[in-house]
Design a protein that fits this description.
Layout: E1 14-19, H1 23-35, E2 38-44, H2 47-57, E3 61-65, H3 73-83, E4 88-93, H4 98-107, E5 111-114, H5 122-130, E6 135-136, H6 138-150, E7 158-160, H7 167-177, H8 182-189, H9 193-207, H10 212-224, E8 228-230
Parallel strand pairs: 1-2, 1-3, 3-4, 4-5, 5-6
Antiparallel strand pairs: 7-8
Helix pairs in contact: 2-3, 7-9, 7-10, 8-9
């Protein structure tokens, strides 16, 4: 993705894609952004189209509705993030659901905002996200702080510099160590239960174990050996 360039007024130019299944909402968001100097390079009416357009145009940011037919906003966010993590994604939702916000951030979003916000604030929120700030409400920020405080000890999040496990497998192992069930892991990582079971199978094979308890113990041993890094 090209570096942000400054426009004639010295304000960083921003290239955006708007994804929403409601054509009226798309037009309102597009007009609001363009009035504030944001260039809307394309718009999408569903999640699958949002992924395709984002990977084609490589915009600076995607403004993504959550509830869309076929591929919802969280799944579309993951699809974009896994292929190009430099594209910033801000989800908009009509529901004030903090758990949904946490899932969106886990999937790769840098923002989660309510559609009830004053639309004139959106361009500033997008520029803040591009500058490295999280575009989230104070309530969601406190929800994340609370989760961090309640996270179990024991090295969750610490990973050996050299490991045969992929980042995704470490995420699954971290959640196992936190006591999460298969369904819990699927919900928190926005995966199907079958995909989680596939990751567990790979974990057991690589760690040479045959149960969850053995996998957790093996993870603790790996963290205790050598230099570790925090992800």
């Amino acid at each position: 993705m090209a570096d942000l360039m400054n426009d004639m007024d010295g304000v960083p130019s921003v290239r955006a894609i708007v994804a929403d299944d409601d054509p009226l909402v798309r037009r309102l968001i597009r007009d609001t952004l363009q009035t504030d100097g944001v260039t809307v390079v394309a718009d999408a009416c569903n999640g699958r189209e949002a992924v395709e357009l984002a990977l084609f145009y490589r915009p600076d940011v995607v403004v993504m509705d959550f509830l869309m037919p076929g591929l919802d906003g969280i799944e579309a966010t993951r699809g974009i993030y896994e292929r190009d993590p430099e594209i910033r994604i801000v989800l908009l939702t009509g529901a004030a659901d903090d758990e949904l916000g946490v899932r969106a951030l886990r999937a790769g979003a840098v923002g989660y905002l309510s559609k009830d916000l004053e639309l004139g604030v959106l361009p500033r929120a997008l520029r803040a996200a591009l500058a490295g700030q999280a575009a989230i409400s104070r309530r969601l920020a406190m929800r994340i702080v609370k989760q961090l405080r309640e996270a179990p000890a024991g090295g969750v999040g610490l990973r050996p510099v050299r490991s045969s496990l992929t980042d995704r497998e470490w995420e699954v192992l971290d959640l196992l160590c936190a006591g999460s069930s298969t369904d819990d892991i699927a919900r928190m990582l926005v995966l199907s239960a079958e995909t989680v079971r596939s990751h567990l199978k790979n974990l057991y094979r690589k760690l040479e174990v045959s149960s969850r308890d053995e996998a957790i113990a093996a993870g603790v041993r790996l963290r205790d050996v050598g230099t570790v890094s925090v992800r």
